[in-house]
Specification:
Length: 416
């Protein structure tokens, strides 16, 4: 019986996908549930599983575009065909095993230990070397002679370069050309739209992370033990941003042609790096979530991004974005607005810096630079600066602004 594997729909409004990867070859025997391919759409990557045991044939080429509902490949699960494939596979495995045994026998008896190391490190085919040792054993000098013979470029070192300028270093100028995936092309389009169709400005500030460090050090172990997730910086910044969005509602808004839409809820998009690029899943109604709820949702979404199982619905509809370039070591950047949103907060690497306190004393504190990119068509400088100042005061005074003004409230607010 022949089973046709058809392209599933990745989501509404998507009619075409691109075959990004095949994990099997034409003629391979596959098992039901085995991942055989990946397809890319404008918004996400989907894994395709085999629907039956059998032999896979008539596969669409990698990089080809195919309509939703069309046949991606066929699986022949007729008993005669599958039995023949299994027999051939067993036969091939036996042949490989015999060749491996012969190689190991030759390897052990005809090559010295020092030569064996060179052969493995340099990936030298044994049949290419003629042994000059006793009984034809391959010696270390045989290996070195072979390498020198194969070396067409003069040996180079910094010393020899300065002594003899005629000897130049080897230059490798290869390049690889690879077609962009549908997802990467869509990301590129969105970034260009963001730059060309918004009046983007960026304002900066710095925030002292000392108080957050103290709270996390004291409660992170209890938090992890009770809730199963880490007490990270993102929950503090998310809750601080929600507070600031309520104070400056135009930052939680968007332009739709000649209209301004203000959102009375906070759907916070969190930028997460995955194997297919940067994804921005959404924490829905984040204003109703606690520290625990936010950290658990970030953990859940991060897992789905990194395993390629994030859905389109989970990445659409955010009203404000937070991105943390600090996890990659970025000290300062100007984040790009995630359209159709009007603003994005960029977090950066925490670095110890000298700070002058209110008593004119210089002390060392952990400092992070913050950047708010915003659409000046809808947000004025006063609102953008005020928003960042609000986030700064909440992070620098978390007990006052995030813990109801009392340190005794911290365990209850963290649900410990």
């Amino acid at each position: 019986m022949i089973t046709k594997v058809k392209v599933p729909s990745p989501g509404e409004s998507i009619t075409e996908v691109e075959v990004s990867s095949w994990f099997v070859k034409n003629g391979d025997y596959v098992q039901k549930g085995q991942i055989i391919a990946e397809i890319d759409s404008d918004k996400a990557t989907l894994e395709i599983s085999s629907e039956e045991n059998g032999v896979i044939t008539l596969m669409v080429e990698k990089g080809d575009k195919i309509k939703v509902g069309e046949v991606l490949c066929v699986i022949d699960n007729s008993e005669k065909n599958t039995q023949e494939i299994k027999k051939n596979r067993i036969k091939n495995n036996l042949n490989k095993k015999e060749k491996l045994n012969e190689h190991e026998k030759y390897d052990e008896k005809n090559i010295s230990p020092a030569s064996k190391k060179i052969v493995k490190e340099k990936n030298i085919p044994l049949e290419s070397i003629k042994g000059t040792g006793k009984h034809g054993m391959i010696t270390k000098s045989d290996c070195i002679s072979y390498l020198n013979k194969m070396e067409h470029i003069p040996k180079y070192s910094e010393d020899s370069y300065f002594i003899n300028r005629d000897i130049t270093p080897p230059m490798y100028r290869s390049k690889t050309i690879k077609k962009l995936s549908s997802l990467r092309r869509k990301i590129s389009e969105r970034l260009v739209i963001s730059k060309n169709k918004t009046a983007t400005l960026t304002t900066f500030n710095e925030v002292n992370m000392q108080e957050i460090f103290i709270i996390r050090k004291k409660y992170k172990d209890l938090f992890k033990k009770k809730h199963g997730v880490n007490l990270g910086f993102m929950s503090f910044f998310t809750i601080s941003c929600i507070r600031a969005l309520k104070l400056y509602p135009d930052i939680n808004a968007m332009i739709n042609e000649e209209e301004k839409i203000n959102f009375n809820y906070c759907d916070i998009s969190i930028a997460i790096s995955g194997p297919k690029g940067l994804m921005v899943p959404v924490i829905r109604n984040a204003e109703n979530l606690s520290f625990r709820g936010i950290e658990q949702e970030i953990s859940r979404l991060s897992y789905r991004v990194r395993n390629g199982t994030i859905s389109i619905d989970e990445m659409t509809g955010g009203t404000f974005t937070i991105t943390n370039g600090g996890v990659f070591g970025s000290m300062l950047s100007t984040p790009i607005i995630n359209p159709p949103q009007s603003a994005i907060l960029g977090m950066h690497k925490i670095v110890k810096r000298p700070i002058v306190d209110d008593n004119d004393s210089i002390k060392i504190h952990p400092i992070m630079y913050l950047a708010l990119s915003y659409d000046h068509r809808i947000i004025d400088g006063k609102e953008s600066v005020g928003f960042l100042v609000s986030v700064k005061e909440a992070i620098e005074n978390p007990i006052e602004f995030l813990m109801k003004g009392n340190e005794n409230n911290i365990p209850d607010i963290l649900e410990l």
